[in-house]
User: Fold this.
Amino acid sequence: MTGTVFDIKEFSLHDGPGARVTVFLKGCPLRCRWCHNPEGLSPKPQLMYKEAMCTRCGRCFEKCSHPECAPYGRCIKICPGNCLSVSGTEYTTEELASRLSAYAPFVNTNGGGITFSGGEPLMQDDFVCELADKIRQKTPMHLAVQTSGYADEEVFARVIDKMDYVMMDIKLADRDLHKKYTGVYNDKILRNFEYLKNSGKEYIIRIPLIPDITDTEENLKKISGIINDSPAELLSYNSLAPAKYDMLGMKYSLENKKNNKVDLGIFKNAKLS
Amino acid sequence: MSNNLLNYITSKQHHVYRHDCTIDFAAEFSAKKLSPVERMSERFVRLMAMETPVILPDEKICFLRTVKNIPDCFTEAEWSDIRNKHFIHESGYMSNLSPDYEKIISHGLLAFRDEADVYGKAAIDAIIDLADRYKTEAKKTGRDDIAQVLERVPCYGASSFREALQMFRIVHYSLWLEGNYHNTVGRFDRYMYPYFKADMDAGVIDEVSALELIEDFFISFNKDSDLYPGVQQGDNGQSMVLGGMDEDGNEVFSDLSRLCLEASRNLLLIDPKINLRVNRNTPIEIYELGSELTKAGLGFPQYSNDDVVVDGLTKLGYELADARNYAVAACWEFIIPHVGCDVANIGALSFPKIIDICLHKHLESCESFDEFMEKVRMECITECDEMCGKIKDLWFVPSPFMNVCMDCDIYTGGKYNNFGFHGTGIATATDSLAVIKKYVFGDKSVTKAQLIEAVDSDYEKHSELLAKFRYEAPKFGNNDNEADSLAVALLDIFADSLEGKTNCRGGKFRAGTGSAMFYLWHAAEIGASPDGRRKGEAFGTNFSASLFAKLNGPLSIISSFAKPHFDRAINGGPLTLEFHNSMFSDDDCIHKVAMLVKSYMDMGGHQLQLNAVNPEKMKDAQLHPENHRSLVVRIWGWSAYFVELDKEFQDHVMARAAYRV
Assistant:
């Protein structure tokens, strides 16, 4: 079976223990206003355009016969400045597992592994499960997933059970605010958290600190109540607008904001990074 | 740390003590018909006499250059005569040596006076005379501590860590004033360790006061460095080597090594440039200390891998004990302290030029890619024959004091007299070959004529090939054997082309992976290349991927760049990588970066230069240099203040792709 990947990042530093390689799976059911991977939202391949480097030479509008260019109405293979690219590559589980197994010597000797991120990797649950099995058959590596936790319970359980380590977000405790800022209610997420807690898997809860949205005292206190002594990591906000928004012709509304001061003391088992 | 001294030096207040030397030595010496060695001796003695002792506020390690310039010893006509008769390397001095600091620090200059020739004696006397005047000045200004140190050094062997550091300073200072350049520091934590340990054991110093002394000493490398010659400010060769194994294979890294890394991190000065030797026994903690320093953004430490370097050097004929004692020359060339008189940067092969020649001369007639590679081999041999053949009757400006500091006669030759060649543009050449292999001989989607026309027209013709060659073709650095095997082959061919040759000093030739400034100069010699590089675009620096290659990431890069047979190409030249400074944000990141560096070594990499860069700051520094006086970047084998560089060097650093979080 095949899946759609928008990036494979070698030596990712913040995606789990040790030295890792992260596979970014395309497609996400959430629409968080602060999303830093906007090319991960749509499940389909998308054209990325680096406008700042474009010299308006017009070559990409000349007719070409490449089948891979057909969906975009312009030639994506001619730009001398490499301004056009497609985000989203289709892989079979076999191809991807082979490619990832090449990293085994490095990640295995450095306490690392492979991380599935996104997007929302649980949106391609069958693909991820088959991929995990194939990797374990070829060259066993430590496998981790980064998820919003937004999936049906059965899907969540099936994927989690294949993993060695789970990084799951809890963004907003309030059901309505969650809907307002991410586009979905958090019922499934909170239910899946209960599953995760009792799964016996090693995990960490990640709380993105978004100025005035998630980093309010009220929200953090409520999340602290939900996760109790579960290990957690609070992720400071990076105020730079991701350049990728421009490349996709999208707008980013949270530029130049700064985090409120966070009192780590309200958590039992959390670190700030 | 003495912040006062640091601020004093970085704000250049000490420049007020400088004066010009207006003597026309060349004319005078020429009229007197003095021999070259007489000239060098007399110039040194007179310059030393012109020096005025200056002791700066708070400094513990003294000696400051007050004579700004060193006028030439030879007239232009004489130089032209010398150049007609001889091969002259760079400006004629024997540079890139690693003097025997150990013997001088332990015995003192007087111990070598008797055995020195008349010029060596004169040099020693001149140095002692200046030291005496410093002593008088120290007493006069109430600096009894300095006067006391100078009671002992430089005449007699050092009896304390501080005396040993002062002795080094005096020797190094004198070597510069003699006119030598690229005066390296060598294995500092080896020859200084006995003094450090004795004082630590005796309680004369503790970690805090030792660190203060080291910082004071490190600042001394930056007092006169703007007066030292180099292609750009910063290219001065003050390379310090830390760690690694000793002659018997035992680990050298000590508390002293650790304090040196710490001092460098505290001071944030470009000198001394730190090289960290590592090997299979080096624990991850040492790589972490190195990565902490990398984070500081100074463009060092540069790592070299003992396991690979020692193996390569012994295969070239270096004795095992000497090979294990290797140091690093001005940039990255491997040299042997005390006894080695290698000229490690005597020339440079341009790999892309070889491909360019073969493209125009042979491609049309070749039936297969293998046949084309045979032509590459042939042209490389021809080019190397020519490069080697040009170097005969090599002549050096005599350096009487340098000769005292070595354990060999540098005029007649040391124990090792090998010549090293850099190899420039390996990725451009490799990627060009990959295009020829894949598209011309492989799927035949491009004809020979089309390729040549495209390259010759700078891709104005067949412009559809440009993006294909630049971004779609296999690239060295993607852990793709299609390309990587060609890089391996190119370096093998380079090594084969030099093998068995004897140079004019009886030594061999060494193939290397460095570039020096040739990544710009050689790039300017040719037009566009088959890898989609357009006319005027530079090569990658040293041993690195092409500037525009789309790469998978650092794991693929280190895997690719560990493949060549470095035991046959061991002149030096590091894999050069840039990481955005966000890659060093916390201890966990530092630990992971350290793992990556260690992995390159474990894979069999020979040398690595990892730089923490801040492209946003560089951009702003080009617009507002006044706000970024202290921004440091690594150029090829040395670090520099960004704002002091010519724009072409600034632009190249900015064009290198930085890996980000």
Remarks:
- Chain B touches chain A through 29 residues (CB under 8 Å).
- DSSP finds 27 helices and 14 strands in chain B.
- Chain B has a mean pLDDT of 95.
- Residues 1-183 of chain B form one domain.
